[in-house]
Amino acid sequence: MNPFNYTIDFLLNLPPPTILSQHILPWLSKNGFVSSQTFIDNIHTAIYVALFYQLCFLVANNIIFPPLASLTASQKRSKLVNQSAVHFVSVVQTIIVLKLSFDNLLSDQYHARFSEPASRIFGVDRETMAVATFALGYFIWDIYISMIYSTFPFFVHAVVSTIVFCIGMKPYIQYYGCVFLMFELSNPFLNIRWFGMKYLSGSNDSKVSRWIQLINNLCLMIVFFLARIVWGWWQIKNLAYDFWLVRHDPRFLLGESLAILAGNFVLDILNVVWFSTMCKVAVKTIRKGAK
Fold first, then answer.
1. Which residues of 190-223 are buried (b: 16+ CB within 10 A; e: fewer)?
2. Closest CA relative to residue 210, chosen from 286, 114, 105, 121
3. Once rounded to an integer, what is the mean pLDDT over residues 163-167?
4. Could you list the residue range(s) of the whole structural domain that residue 225 is in?
5. Which residue, 188, 148, 150, 175, is CA-closest to 260?
6. CA distance linking residue 185 with residue 182, whole number of Å
7. What's the sign of the alpha-carbon dihedral 176, 178, 182, 183?
8. How many separate helices (H) and strands (E) can be counted in the chain?
9. Is there a smaller number of Cβ atoms within 10 Å at the N or the C end of the chain?
10. Signal peptide span per the entry (predicted)?
């Protein structure tokens, strides 16, 4: 088994800490804060995942980027190191969730298991739970890190995503976890652009460097638009229609369904706002690269 798969399996198979399994979760369940046994059985893994991402952040923040930042002309090297570590975790998270999501979406068995609206809303298996757990763990970490290093829209994105994936852990709409994580397809281009701007600024006179940045910016805009806006709005329509088809099922959760739709609508609006901002920046970069 390669180190990548070993790390994923290791985190998924860690037992819950005693204080959580014997004290905190029973108290939450007894007092009506948590009712889903599936959530109780898996929340510890999401916490481990959040701690894993924090470990990645600390390694990047204290070992990887301080020597690299010292080679740049930045006058705010501490801020650059912190931001670089955040983007490093984003890279790690993107690789993990896209790998897990594509393993599902490219599997014929996966689509066969979730061929009906009821299975797409209420169905669950080990693979979809792994996706939901890693996504929830990242967004829990993202709430914490966004309060320190990011802006308010990113904090809102983290909170909304955490709520949606908490509901998904019930389990609920786990089929759509892989679907909506296709948003992450734009992240590699976004991170390449960011690292290029921060660490390759001294090579702006290089024609090759300018063309690489130009091509990456174009790819970022195209993939962002297709994955987060076209795909995102199309899939929220599909999700709403599936909710409508199963609305009379006793397992249907009206409040949670409305929260999911509202949360995804907020994310879709944020994606439109970010895309419009990205277009302005990219156009300026393209004009500069064309000179």
1. bbbbeebebbeeeeeeeeebbebbbebbeebbeb
2. 286
3. 89
4. 3-290
5. 175
6. 6
7. positive
8. 15, 0
9. C
10. none
Dump the DSSP string for 191-223.
Answer: HHHHHHHHHSGGGTT-HHHHHHHHHHHHHHHHH
32: left (phi over 0), alpha (psi -120 to 50) or beta: left
- Read off the amino acid at residue 97: V
> Token pair 């999501």 is at which residue?
101
The yes-or-no verdict on residue 291 having pLDDT over 60 is no
Domain count for the chain: 1
DSSP state of 182: G
Please return the burial class of 284, using the count of CB atoms within 10 Å of its CB with bins 0-12, 13-18 and 19+.
Answer: exposed
Q: What sign results for the dihedral spanned by CA atoms 72, 73, 77, 81?
A: negative
Give the confidence band of 286 by pLDDT, cuts at 50, 70, 90. Answer: low
Give the tens place of pLDDT for each residue, 83-99: 999 999 999 999 999 99
- As given in the structure block, the two tokens for residue 212 are 């690489």
Give the contacts of 183 (CB within 8 A, at least 6 positions apart).
227, 228, 231, 232, 267, 271
If you average pLDDT over residues 26-36, what whole number do you get?
Answer: 87
Question: What are 220's two structure tokens?
Answer: 């970022």
